[in-house]
């Protein structure tokens, strides 16, 4: 099997891999911020609920969570699960898992901000929401960007876990081609794809960090 033929078969899987990546970020980044607010809530019940959620999502394998989301509706509610639910389960499990990690990153950034900034904003007449989104949050983003970058790079590689529910992303297709044609080339192509994808993400995030470096 020639390289152009392998690339042609892998192209559809590459698009699905990129789709998992971007949809996970779109849902998990804002959800992580909401969860971080719950984690820092003054209400002890609410705070502990979110603390348990973060502990469970970070303390169990993403692949296990993916299997639970995919097979859970069938075993718990006898729902029919098919191709459409497969993709939904992937996005749900990935988004909820990464939201837990982003929540802790947000929390560390928010709690590192000096209390004096809140007090100064209050004296200037800012509301709590204005203080957070206009003054605190932009500084938090700058501080947490390196940690977020690490998680985003990890996400690129974690997209391959979708093979556990037989979703036809790039790694799954590469395995099938390698098994049927007894060739190692698809795995080499897959490795190059993940490396280039991660390289692009790293370059973009590095440029973003430089743009947010106020002290240059």
TrEMBL record:
Look up keyword Mitochondrion and say if it applies.
no
One Gene Ontology term, aspect cellular component: ATP-binding cassette (ABC) transporter complex
The superkingdom listed in its UniProt entry is Bacteria
GO BP terms: amino acid transport
SUPFAM superfamilies this protein is in?
MetI-like (SSF161098)
In its UniProt record, a GO molecular function of this protein is: transmembrane transporter activity
- Main location per UniProt? membrane
As for membrane topology, the entry says:
Multi-pass membrane protein
Annotated transmembrane regions: 20-38, 50-72, 84-103, 184-205
* Annotated ranges, domain ABC transmembrane type-1: 14-205
Q: Which UniProt keywords apply?
A: Amino-acid transport, Cell membrane, Membrane, Transmembrane, Transmembrane helix, Transport
UniProt-annotated location(s): Cell membrane
Family (UniProt): Belongs to the binding-protein-dependent transport system permease family.
Instruction: Provide the protein name.
Output: Amino acid ABC transporter permease
Q: Which organism is it from?
A: Fusicatenibacter faecihominis
């Amino acid at each position: 099997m020639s390289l152009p033929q392998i690339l042609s078969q892998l192209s559809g899987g590459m698009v699905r891999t990129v789709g998992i990546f971007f949809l996970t970020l779109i849902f998990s980044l804002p959800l992580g911020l909401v969860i971080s607010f719950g984690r820092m809530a003054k209400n002890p019940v609410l705070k502990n609920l979110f603390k348990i959620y973060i502990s469970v999502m970070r303390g169990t394998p993403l692949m296990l969570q993916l299997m639970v989301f995919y097979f859970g509706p069938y075993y718990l509610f006898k729902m029919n699960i098919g191709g459409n639910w497969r993709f939904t389960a992937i996005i749900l499990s990935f988004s909820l898992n990464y939201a837990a990690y982003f929540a802790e990153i947000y929390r560390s950034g928010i709690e590192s901000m000096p209390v004096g900034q809140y007090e100064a904003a209050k004296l200037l007449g800012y509301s709590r929401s204005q203080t957070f989104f206009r003054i605190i949050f932009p500084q938090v983003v700058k501080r947490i960007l390196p940690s977020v970058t690490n998680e985003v790079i990890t996400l690129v590689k974690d997209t391959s876990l979708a093979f556990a529910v037989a979703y036809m992303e790039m790694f799954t297709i590469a395995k099938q081609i390698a098994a049927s044609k007894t060739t190692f080339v698809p795995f080499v192509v897959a490795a190059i794809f993940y490396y280039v994808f991660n390289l692009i993400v790293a370059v973009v995030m590095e440029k973003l960090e430089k743009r947010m470096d106020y002290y240059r």
